[in-house]
């Protein structure tokens, strides 16, 4: 009987897992940034709370959340594995290594950027996701919705947390700058007509997503959004 | 860029054999002509070492015109030195300045063990080719030209992939010591031509499996290989190899 053999354990298969889970997380970020951007209505978080409550209680979204965590864990596991395997492929390091002559620093630092994002994710999930799903949101807003916005405002009064979030979004921007186009190359989508479009789209995607996310804690800390 | 003769300091990796601990050794080379190639400068240094009764520096070289792929020095943190699209034998001393310190190391990869000094064992590449980088038909006499029509763009792409001289600069410069640019070029040169079709997907699977078995790292698409390749082999080949590999694994019913 024919099987997929080493399709996923080979070097190309490992890339494929990184690419597919990466693109899946890229799709998730679009949804995430869209819902969160509802705070920019600046209506005391009412629109945002409606969106957040829908996301928290819709069963399709909740099922999707499980898939998201599986994808995220696969991306983290595979990424860390690649970092260690790739280090082992060069046991003796160069005394002189001029990496900047031929590649972007962030394309060579995906493991580091990803690790920074992982540390941020642990803080971020305990700040909001654990509160929303498990420990419970303490207050309700004027419309009787769970007031996740109030949790957000409360968190972002702390300058340290705001700085942590902004720095994490800088890591995210660079991680995406390499990751977006790289995922398509891994899938074999290298085409003279499409690749420039993918690269340009990936560049603007990375910048816009990261800037929008970074603006949220900054806008709340400075009191522009309240 | 120098037009006068130069005095240089070299820091060269010396290692007596694969088991030994190596280290960088300083050498002064004086009165180096800017018109010398990098290898000729090493010849002069070696003559000097031999005269003094020292052990000359071992390095790989053969054609000295950039087509054989034997030379392999990692110069100041880059394979084949600071110039683009040249091999070490085509690098001239006019690319350096009087008083420069030049660090020269062997290719560094688990799959390329050091034999001595700057020479490394690149037979891992030969084993990747032996795993499927060929067509298994008796070709007989040469056919008439154009007996099999091939579109110009197709034959050009195949020819560009076939320009790979298997020097190993891609592995040397890759932060992961990945051999994907080499392997993909050797897969592509056949995958793009009619003669390569019958074994196309079987070949991709076998060669990738051998590449993995040799202990090369995994590609992370930094693009360093393409930038440093003396023959300008493109990342498009890696994408093509990926597609052929997926076809072999997920579309084809055949298992290798």
TrEMBL record, chain B:
<dbReference type="GO" id="GO:0022904">
    <property type="term" value="P:respiratory electron transport chain"/>
</dbReference>
<dbReference type="InterPro" id="IPR050573">
    <property type="entry name" value="SDH/FRD_Iron-Sulfur"/>
</dbReference>
<dbReference type="InterPro" id="IPR012675">
    <property type="entry name" value="Beta-grasp_dom_sf"/>
</dbReference>
<dbReference type="GO" id="GO:0009055">
    <property type="term" value="F:electron transfer activity"/>
</dbReference>
<protein>
    <submittedName>
        <fullName>Succinate dehydrogenase</fullName>
    </submittedName>
</protein>
<dbReference type="InterPro" id="IPR036010">
    <property type="entry name" value="2Fe-2S_ferredoxin-like_sf"/>
</dbReference>
<comment type="similarity">
    <text>Belongs to the succinate dehydrogenase/fumarate reductase iron-sulfur protein family.</text>
</comment>
<dbReference type="Pfam" id="PF13183">
    <property type="entry name" value="Fer4_8"/>
</dbReference>
<feature type="domain" description="4Fe-4S ferredoxin-type">
    <location>
        <begin position="155"/>
        <end position="185"/>
    </location>
</feature>
<dbReference type="Pfam" id="PF13085">
    <property type="entry name" value="Fer2_3"/>
</dbReference>
<dbReference type="GO" id="GO:0051537">
    <property type="term" value="F:2 iron, 2 sulfur cluster binding"/>
</dbReference>
<dbReference type="GO" id="GO:0009060">
    <property type="term" value="P:aerobic respiration"/>
</dbReference>
<dbReference type="InterPro" id="IPR025192">
    <property type="entry name" value="Succ_DH/fum_Rdtase_N"/>
</dbReference>
<dbReference type="InterPro" id="IPR017896">
    <property type="entry name" value="4Fe4S_Fe-S-bd"/>
</dbReference>
<dbReference type="InterPro" id="IPR006058">
    <property type="entry name" value="2Fe2S_fd_BS"/>
</dbReference>
<dbReference type="InterPro" id="IPR009051">
    <property type="entry name" value="Helical_ferredxn"/>
</dbReference>
């Amino acid at each position: 009987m024919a099987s997929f053999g080493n399709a996923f354990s080979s070097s190309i298969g490992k890339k494929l897992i990184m690419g597919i889970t990466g693109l899946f997380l890229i799709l998730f970020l679009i949804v995430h940034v869209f819902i969160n951007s509802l705070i920019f209505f600046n209506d005391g978080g009412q629109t945002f709370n409606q969106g957040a409550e829908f996301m928290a209680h819709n069963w399709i979204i909740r099922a999707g959340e499980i898939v998201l965590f599986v994808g995220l864990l696969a991306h983290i596991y595979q990424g860390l594995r690649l970092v260690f395997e790739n280090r082992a492929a060069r046991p003796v390091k160069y005394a002189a290594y001029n990496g900047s002559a031929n590649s972007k620093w962030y394309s060579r630092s995906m493991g580091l950027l990803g690790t920074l994002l992982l540390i941020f994710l642990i803080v971020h999930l305990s700040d909001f996701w654990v509160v929303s799903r498990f420990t419970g949101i303490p207050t309700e807003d004027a419309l009787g919705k769970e007031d996740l916005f109030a949790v957000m405002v409360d968190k972002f009064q702390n300058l340290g947390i705001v700085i942590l979030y902004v720095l994490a979004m800088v890591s995210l921007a660079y991680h995406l700058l390499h990751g977006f186009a790289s995922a398509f190359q891994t899938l074999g989508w290298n085409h003279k007509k499409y690749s420039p479009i993918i690269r340009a789209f990936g560049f603007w995607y990375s910048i816009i997503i990261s800037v929008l996310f970074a603006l949220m804690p900054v806008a709340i800390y400075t009191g522009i959004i309240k | 860029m120098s037009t006068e003769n130069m005095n240089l300091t070299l820091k060269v990796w010396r290692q007596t054999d694969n088991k030994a601990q190596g280290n960088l050794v300083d050498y002064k080379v004086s009165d180096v002509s800017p018109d010398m190639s990098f290898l000729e400068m090493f010849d002069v240094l070696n003559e000097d070492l031999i005269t003094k009764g020292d052990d000359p520096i071992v390095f790989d070289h053969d054609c000295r015109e950039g087509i054989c792929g034997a030379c392999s020095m990692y110069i100041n943190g880059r394979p084949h030195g600071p110039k683009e699209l040249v091999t070490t034998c085509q690098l001239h001393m006019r690319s350096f300045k009087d008083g420069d310190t030049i660090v020269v190391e062997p290719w560094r990869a688990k799959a390329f063990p050091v034999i001595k000094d700057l020479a490394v064992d690149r037979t891992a590449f030969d084993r990747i080719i032996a795993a499927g980088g060929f067509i298994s038909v008796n070709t007989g006499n040469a056919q008439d030209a154009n007996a099999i029509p091939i579109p110009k763009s197709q034959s050009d792409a195949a020819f560009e992939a076939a320009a790979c001289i298997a020097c190993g600069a891609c592995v040397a410069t890759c932060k992961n010591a990945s051999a994907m640019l080499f392997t993909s070029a050797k897969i592509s040169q056949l995958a793009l031509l009619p003669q390569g079709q019958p074994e196309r997907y079987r070949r991709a699977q076998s060669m990738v499996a051998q590449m993995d078995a040799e202990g090369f790292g995994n590609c992370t698409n930094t693009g360093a290989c393409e930038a440093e390749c003396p023959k300008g082999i493109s990342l498009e080949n890696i994408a093509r190899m990926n597609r052929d590999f997926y076809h072999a694994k997920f579309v084809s019913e055949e298992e290798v």
